[in-house]
Structures are given as structure tokens and as C-alpha cells.
Amino acid sequence: xxxxxxxxxxxxxxxxxxxxxxxxxxxxxxxxxxxxxxxxxxxxxxxxxxxxxxxxxxxxxxxxxxxxxxxxxxxxxxxxxxxxxxxxxxxxxxxxxxxxxxxxxxxxxxxxxxxxxxxxxxxxxxxxxxxxx
Length: 133
Hints:
It is built from four helices and four strands. It has 133 residues and is α+β, with helices and mostly antiparallel strands.
């Protein structure tokens, strides 16, 4: 856990580096019921509130992508959507374009692309790897 000062510092660092920050909306309370202590740090929701406040003050944007968007199951290379992807599968090969997708990296790319399109950014380029928080 970062602690209060660390959360504010991270929020300032992120808003200094990025104009648009994209996050998937997660059901943290539901995850805590399923996995208990593994996800018990619900301070992430508080961090997002701090981040939104600082972003607004700096004229930056925080975009939330709906949790039901198939970010892990959609190939970030060609857009093919898998019918099913078990939680235990950490990497998968797209049946359409044959690209190999790491579950979290692929989801981050998709969340970035959807978030960018939500705020009408054209020609999204990934100069830096997406930060998955």
C-alpha cells in the first residue's frame, strides 16, 4: 500500500506524464468477496478519486472503460473476440491473426484504445507501455 502521501505523489506523477489516463471499472468489493485478503486493499478506489481530482485541476482526463468490455478476450492486434477465456489462461494465441497475447498486456492495450476513442483521440500511438494499476 502506498500510503496517503504516496497516493498523492503517484497521482501527480501520472497526471504530469499523461493527458488521458484509462482504467477498467472493477467491482473491487465483489473481488474481495471472492478472493478475500488478496484484493483487500480497497484503497485503489480512494486513489482513483484522488487521481480524478488532481486530473481535473490540471485539465487532464481520467476515462473509465466498462467492466463488461471484453478487454482480455479481444485481440489487441486484429480485434477478434474469443468466445471464452478461462481466468487461469495467462497467454493466448489469436485464432484470426496468430498473434500471441499476454492476458494483462493485451487488456491494457485494449483499455487504452477504447479509452482513447471514448475521448475522441485519433491515431492512438503507444509511445510508452500502458500502466496497469
